[in-house]
């Protein structure tokens, strides 16, 4: 990148001595190895004043520069990086040279770069009066400041000619970093530089006359900041957590650790090497893992047998990883981070029952968990390699048993889901197997310990008698004679081996109509059965009976009896309303519409027959007219005086034989003025005309059959 100063001599052969390295950039071909004490190349430094107290510093501690300027290796070096920097200082000058280490093909390309045109080098093809060679300045220099870092030379000898420097770092932000002596051309820096902030400055230098007019230039002046190793490697991507399956082959990659160094990546200042400082725990081996020093890949180095999660002290390892720059040399800066490596479980241990046979006892007729089957599994409890799955493989033809896994304990909870019957079978034997949710690895199989037998003993319990059928149904007419037999119930005792007797009793008889023979179970009536009773719903009367065995203590069974009651014509029809009011001057002589109802069922109800009983007096005052099957109208034949009248009416249903109800309709004739009815003289209750009219309207809407 920086042209060798020797190539500029053709353009400045008549110029005075320039302090510093006579060549700023060197290219050397990468050898197989730099041999100890063998000269590599000659670096010519001249401060133009005898080089008093001249000292050299090399960026790579494996090299040094002799007093005569020769660069030599302090030991055999096979890898020196891509570049070396040599800093020289005497009483009167200091300068830096760069040595680029390239492959053979890179060297040819690099030489071409040296001879590029003016646009790249800032150096004209034709001879110019200004010579501005590139300047290299190490970062982080210590005071005093300002300090001279280079010099611009001009062959322009005009009287009053001055140098002028401009650009970023001079008259542009950050301002005031560089200055130039306008008479001598000495370039100085005013403070320490930071390469990580700004690595290169491109300035322009020109020569002006006494009036400030440019007489030569501008010419580009390149200033490059030489990297110093002032940044430690940093791990920025944490936390670092890796996983590796137990039993993995030696050399399995677990994870990669990568650090960052802000120094120049083309120098050893950012050339990182990785190392494991500490492993916790140290068993079964203190060196369970290895880290690739260049890539940062962490790999396993122990045999698969040692990488056994079940035999480890803990399945978690913590590694303290160090990243060191300068290629890992002692002079390098370091940074550390912790890598956590988890040994993941694989299903290499089948679950095993803690014993070959389990015992359980259960009472007949009871459901629920009867025994917990325990297993052991050395795999990770947080994985499907540990979680157990149980299966009943024999002895459960009636599906009376089920088994489920307790998620907390991993035990198998064996339950009775269909009640067992002692009289059918007093013993049951189940064969149960256990597996894991995850499949076993190929070279592991389930063994005999993964199956177990459960012996179940059923205990006899005094069971209550059972009615057959239940519920029991029978149909009877209402009003059958008291003492009639309704039904003889049948109940049996499931405990056939106990030879017990059964007695019967009434449990619930809401209307008190029934009784039962305690010995033979015959149910008879103790009262008239009434279908119209409020205890009858949808024509059905329900009663409950008990069957009690002779056990100690006795057991009870409950039977339900549904009696469907058939209707008989045992209810006379009723008439409504029984009171009517009419105005003494009414023009409409229709007094009231009468309706009839019957508690019985059809055909013992409508159509109803409405009739007037014999009327007293010489003249008939009213008549009755049928409107439909359930309604009739009473009509006045003449206006009546204000008074109370009783109209005898009979209504007959259609039953066989029919039933008749004789009743009286009370008629109040009232005075009516201004739409107000006054019935006070008749001692009658006041009923609004509106209510009567609404009743008439609704009843007239019914049509005859």
From TrEMBL:
Signal peptide boundaries: none
Location within or outside the cell: Cell membrane; Cytoplasm
Membrane topology: Lipid-anchor; GPI-anchor
Cited SMART domains: CA, Cadherin_pro
Single GO BP term: adherens junction organization
MF terms (GO), sorted A to Z: beta-catenin binding; cadherin binding; calcium ion binding
Alphabetically ordered keywords of this record: Calcium, Cell adhesion, Cell membrane, Cleavage on pair of basic residues, Cytoplasm, Glycoprotein, GPI-anchor, Lipoprotein, Membrane, Metal-binding, Repeat, Signal
Location (main, coarse): membrane
GO cellular component entries: adherens junction; catenin complex; cell surface; cytoplasm; side of membrane
Pfam families linked: Cadherin (PF00028), Cadherin_pro (PF08758)
Coiled-coil stretches noted in the UniProt entry, renumbered to this chain: none
InterPro entries: Cadherin, Cadherin-like_dom, Cadherin-like_sf, Cadherin_CS, Cadherin_pro_dom
The Cadherin domain, residue ranges: 162-235, 236-353, 354-467, 468-575, 591-685
Function: Cadherins are calcium-dependent cell adhesion proteins. They preferentially interact with themselves in a homophilic manner in connecting cells; cadherins may thus contribute to the sorting of heterogeneous cell types. May act as a negative regulator of neural cell growth.
Oligomeric form and interacting partners: By contrast to classical cadherins, homodimerization in trans is not mediated by cadherin EC1 domain strand-swapping, but instead through a homophilic adhesive interface which joins two elongated EC1-EC2 domains through a region near their Ca2+-binding sites to form a tetrahedral, X-like shape.
Name this protein carries in UniProt: Cadherin-13
Species of provenance: Chloroceryle aenea (American pygmy kingfisher)
């Amino acid at each position: 990148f920086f042209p060798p100063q020797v190539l500029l001599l053709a353009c400045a052969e008549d110029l005075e001595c320039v302090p510093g390295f006579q060549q700023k950039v060197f290219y050397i071909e990468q050898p197989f190895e730099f041999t100890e004490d063998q000269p590599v190349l000659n670096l010519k430094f001249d401060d133009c004043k005898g080089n008093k107290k001249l000292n050299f510093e090399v960026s790579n501690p494996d090299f040094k520069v002799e007093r005569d300027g020769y660069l030599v290796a302090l030991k055999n070096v096979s890898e020196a990086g891509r570049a070396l920097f040599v800093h020289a200082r005497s009483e009167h000058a200091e300068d830096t040279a760069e040595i680029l280490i390239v492959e053979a093909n890179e060297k040819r390309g690099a030489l071409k770069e040296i001879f590029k045109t003016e646009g790249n080098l800032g150096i004209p093809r034709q001879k110019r009066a200004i010579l501005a060679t590139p300047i290299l300045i190490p970062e982080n220099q210590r005071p005093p400041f300002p300090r001279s870092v280079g010099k611009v030379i001009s062959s322009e000898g005009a009287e009053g000619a001055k140098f002028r420097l401009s650009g970023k770092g001079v008259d542009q932000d950050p301002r005031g970093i560089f200055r130039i002596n306008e008479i001598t051309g000495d370039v100085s820096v005013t403070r320490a530089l930071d390469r990580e902030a700004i690595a290169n400055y491109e300035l322009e230098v020109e020569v002006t006359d006494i009036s400030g007019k440019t007489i030569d230039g501008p010419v580009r002046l390149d200033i490059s900041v030489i990297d110093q190793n002032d940044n430690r490697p940093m791990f920025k991507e944490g936390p670092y957590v890796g996983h590796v399956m137990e039993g993995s082959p030696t050399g399995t990659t677990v994870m990669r650790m990568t650090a960052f160094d802000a120094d120049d990546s083309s120098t050893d200042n950012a050339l990182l090497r990785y190392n494991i400082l500490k492993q916790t725990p140290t068993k079964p081996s203190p060196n369970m893992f290895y880290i690739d020093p260049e890539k940062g890949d962490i790999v396993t180095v122990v045999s698969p047998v040692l990488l056994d999660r079940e035999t480890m002290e803990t399945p978690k390892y913590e590694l303290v990883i160090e990243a060191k720059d300068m290629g890992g040399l002692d002079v390098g800066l370091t940074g550390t981070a912790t890598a956590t490596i988890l040994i993941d479980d694989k299903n290499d241990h089948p679950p095993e029952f803690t014993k070959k046979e389990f015992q359980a006892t259960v009472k007949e007729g009871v459901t629920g968990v009867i025994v917990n089957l325990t297993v052991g599994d050395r795999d990770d409890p947080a994985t499907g390699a540990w979680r157990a799955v149980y299966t009943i493989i024999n002895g459960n033809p009636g599906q009376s048993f089920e088994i489920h896994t307790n998620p907390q304990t991993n035990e198998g909870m064996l339950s009775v889901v269909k009640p067992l019957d002692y009289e059918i079978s007093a013993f049951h034997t189940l064969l149960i197997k256990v597996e894991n949710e995850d499949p076993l690895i190929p070279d592991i199989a389930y063994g005999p310990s993964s199956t177990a037998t459960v012996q179940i003993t059923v205990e006899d319990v005094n069971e209550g008698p059972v009615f057959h059928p239940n519920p029991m149904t029978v149909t009877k007419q209402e009003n059958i004679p008291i003492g009639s037999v309704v039904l003889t119930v049948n109940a049996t005792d499931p405990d056939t081996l106990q030879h017990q007797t059964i007695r019967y009793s009434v449990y619930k008889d809401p209307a008190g109509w029934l009784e039962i023979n305690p010995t033979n179970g015959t149910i008879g009536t103790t009262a008239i059965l009434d279908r119209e009773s409020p205890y009858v719903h949808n024509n059905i009367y329900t009663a409950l009976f008990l069957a009690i065995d002779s056990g100690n203590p006795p057991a009870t069974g409950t039977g339900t009896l549904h009696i469907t009651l058939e209707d008989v014509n045992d209810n006379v029809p009723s008439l409504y309303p029984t009171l009517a009011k009419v105005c003494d001057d009414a023009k409409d002589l229709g007094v009231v519409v009468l309706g009839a109802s019957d508690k019985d069922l059809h055909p013992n109800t409508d159509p109803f027959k409405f009739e007037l009983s014999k009327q007293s007096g010489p003249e008939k005052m009213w008549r009755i007219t049928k409107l439909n099957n359930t309604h009739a109208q009473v009509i006045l034949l003449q206006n009546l005086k204000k008074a109370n009248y009783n109209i005898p009416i009979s209504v007959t249903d259609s039953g066989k034989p029919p039933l008749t109800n004789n009743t009286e309709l009370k008629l109040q004739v009232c005075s009516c003025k201004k739409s107000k009815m006054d019935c006070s003289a008749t001692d009658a209750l006041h009923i609004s005309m509106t209510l009567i009219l609404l009743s008439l309207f609704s009843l007239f809407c019914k049509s005859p059959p």
